[in-house]
Specification:
Largest sheet: 8 strands, mixed
Structural class: alpha/beta
Number of helices: 8
Helix content: 25-40%
Strand order of the largest sheet: 1-9-10-8-5-2-3-4
Order of helices and strands: EEHEHEHEEEHHEEHHHE
Radius of gyration: 17 Å
Shape: globular
Strand content: 15-25%
Length: about 250
């Protein structure tokens, strides 16, 4: 039996997606972002690392710049031209004050109403199995929730005021990819091609996986599973966390 979800309403003007690595957003969420940008919503990306430890056969010094380049190209396919890399070390991201400050700075800069991030739970379901969540995803997801509040409090990280970043209390919701259970979904039936192409743009990373992986099959498969929950052919599912008034 398909779990029913609410339709995620396109009633916001700006969204900021904050994830650990280049390619994290492209495993499904990019199709939703393509829909939003085509409807005139401004979307920015904040990538905490350069993904330099993500290709086994490529030295991090070479992999980092290459993955940055692929991420910028991927973002452009779905209508995103604001991409910021925070430069934290891939694979060993720590959820601490430095990360919270860096993310809060970007929230104050971009001033979104919606944040998007990946699940911070220790495990998640993939292909019918419970899978261990990568450590960076867990650290970044929690830091995003904390930074959303930090961004609105002028007395937390007051040094951001000295840099010209005024508090921002306008974040209404955080939408979490891979949440279990998901609560909301976006109909992406008409935006799959852009979402698939954005994942395909990570050519070096996908080659480095060392196994057969079909981005078209993957994106169509996961979105087809979520679609019936909102009576759509294809949908991207999120968990909604309410922030305003907390």
């Amino acid at each position: 039996m398909t779990r029913q979800m609410e339709i995620l309403q396109d009633d916001f003007g700006r969204a900021l997606a904050v994830v650990a690595h280049p390619d994290d957003l492209e495993y499904g969420a990019a199709s939703a972002i393509a829909r939003w940008t085509r409807r005139g919503i401004s979307v920015g990306y904040v990538i905490v690392t350069d993904g330099e430890a993500g290709i086994d056969g490529l030295d991090p010094a070479d992999a980092g710049p290459l993955r940055q380049k692929e991420q910028v190209a991927s973002a452009g396919i779905v209508g995103v031209d604001d991409v910021t890399f925070l430069g934290h070390r891939d694979g060993v991201v720590e959820n601490g004050l430095s990360l919270r400050r860096d993310i809060a700075r970007q929230i104050r800069r971009y001033r979104p109403e919606v944040l998007v991030t990946a699940t911070y739970e220790p495990t998640y379901r993939m292909g019918g199995r419970q899978t261990v969540n990568q450590a960076d995803h867990r650290a970044v997801g929690i830091a995003v929730l904390d930074a959303a509040r930090d961004a609105g409090n002028r007395w937390i990280f007051p040094e951001l005021l000295d840099d010209g970043y005024e508090p921002w209390t306008g974040v209404r919701h955080v939408y979490v990819m891979g949440a279990s259970p998901p609560t909301h979904a976006v109909d992406v039936t008409d935006h799959l091609d852009a979402g698939i192409a954005s994942l395909q743009a990570h050519e070096a990373y996908l080659r480095g996986l060392g196994r057969d992986f079909d981005p078209d099959e993957f994106v169509r498969g996961i979105t087809a599973m979520a679609g019936p929950a909102i009576s759509a052919r294809h949908a991207v599912a999120f968990g909604q966390i309410h922030l305003q008034g907390v």
